[in-house]
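Can you give me the bound-state structure? Components:
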Amino acid sequence: MRSSTTLFALAAAALAVFSVALGAQATVPTLPYDAVDFLRPPANMPIGEVAGVATNSKGHVFIYERSGTFNTTLGTARTFPHGASRLLEFDRDGKFVREIGRDVYAFAYAQSVKIDPQDNVWIVDQYSNMAVKFDPEGRVLMTFGRRPETSRIPNPPTAAAAAPAGGAPGRGGAGRGAGAAAPAARGGRGAVAGDSFNRPTDVAWDAAGNIFIADGFGNSRVLKMDKNGRFLKTFGTPGSEAGQFNMLASLATDAQGNLYVADKGNNRIQVFDNDGNFKKQFTNVGAPAAICISPGAHQYLYSSNSNDPDDLEHGEIYKMELDGAILGKFGTAGHMVREFGSVNSIDCRTENTLYVGELINWRVQKVMLKNQ
Amino acid sequence: MKQILRFAAVALAIVPWTMPSLAQRGQNIREIPYASVSDFLKLPPNVYMGEGIGVARDSRGHVYTYTRSGVTRLYEFDEKGVFVREISPGNYAFEMAHAVRVDPQDNVWIVDEGTNMVVKFNRDGRAALIIGRRPDPFDGLPTAATFAQNPNPPLPYRFDRPTDIAFDAAGNFFVADGYGNSRIAKYDKTGRFLKTTGSRGNGPGQLNTPHSIQTDAAGNVYVADRGNNRIQVYDNDLNLIRSITGIGSPWAVCITPAPHQYLYSSNSSPENNNSAQVATSGEIYKMELDGTVLGKFGKGGKMSGEFSTTHAMDCRVENELLIGEITSWRVQKVTLKPQSATGAGK
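Here's the bound-state model for the whole set.
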């Protein structure tokens, strides 16, 4: 025990060169806030796990959610998956507007929705291994990755991967207990080269329109493409060193084009320049499952230390400066309004009005941070 | 303590001898006369019941059924059995129905053993509280190896084929969990885990398929320990108080409202609709809460007034039960007649 503590201290000291304010957690102020259960879908349209939430320039709210029955059908010597994830649009009052693209080929197991500066709607799907760009009317403009032709029922975790994970300090491993030591183990296919994905999780853009995709839970890397979808580069490998990843959960860019990566399994946010060079990391915000950066002259970074679906621990959301200085935090895990259940997505197009998508509570909360 | 030991000895002695002792006792139990309406629920054209897995009434007498149909569905009927609506079609938690119950505030709760989920619906039919989680497809199919890795005690918010739910006056709720785990878990009204009890086995407080659960007005918890042929009774903190035996294999239990509460328990026919098995089971017992048997009624069979693997009972009205059956795809409304000492009824 003692030797591992020492080892950890040494590692921490080594990281401190890049890290910001490791010991600052004790004095984090609590931000006052209110919240409402925001969405008002029709009675016969039950919302499932809200994996992604995003607003467009008109204040409309889009969600990409897991609902209905995820199933497989028997075909010629193979089974075929049928997803039940849906892309839904609501107006600024939470009133349902429309469903976009029912049964689109990429819709299987929702992970993320983002709206780019031109109000195009992008989804990232963890099971179909695809990202899709829709124009504001909902027509497909561009696709990334390819859905597997048939079901791939993942192998059960190996004994080593399923054992209580010791890989990640502070929390019980990445994700849902299994796979922290071997991020690709639950993906079923191992690493995929080039611009194919293995459980991608998120998308972001810089001012020039370059595209970053987090890939993700199966692979451990970020892909960069130009605005025409042409592959530029990839960076990152599995691990816990600088520039390595263990479950990339969420992406955000700032106005300078720096890329912020929620490296959930390593309990840190890593910051890269626009070419993917490691700049710094923030290690004092728990296990970040969802991050966002607000627009404007003074940008802020939000990060959710989401609870694992198997517990109601943690759950607080941090508000930070882009340099990692923590301004405050709010919220805790739970099922009630104002509490958070496995937050998987945050929209912060407006600095103090957040839309927070939750997995286990099947909802979006509109969170209003109050002026102090 | 002494009592518990004695109880343990009795329980152990009874287990191998359940069938003979049942037959013996059965002869001394009074038959309660009753009448049945087997087409109580009026289904519109093209709406079908599948297996009558869950049935419950709210304070207005509206009836909810959670049924295994082409897909699992939650239906609402009015107090006359007229179809009102389907609630939350395509809900992410609906896969393999197991129970529906209505809490004292008229919220409708479902328990789904195919998704390991418990969902509370408010009057508008919206999900208001969600406990448990449909497995992530990336967890893959369970295997013997992954079952062996199930943590013990089970994780607070992860069920393994849960079966039923009950509520106390404070709004706490108890989940019977279930086929995979063998435990009862208690949560507060906000859905926060409080405690768990039970492990697989046949000793006192152990469970072998806790299949149905109810509370009495004092907050005690009654668990149909189906595989052990007993109802185990716990206090509100889940300490074992007593065990009720001699009533066959309890598949479904319900408790009538205060002031004088009664306990019903069904010794349901095994679920394969097999005539040989149906012949020896299917009766429903009426008891005092202490387990004293007041009488029994019914037998296995497909006709009106017979029971085809009773899976759920509602007894919000003491002598007017709603009975959901697996293999006859229906809900029967059973009226117990003023009690006299004579005759089996129909």
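A couple of observations. The mean pLDDT of chain B is 89. The radius of gyration of chain B is 19 Å.
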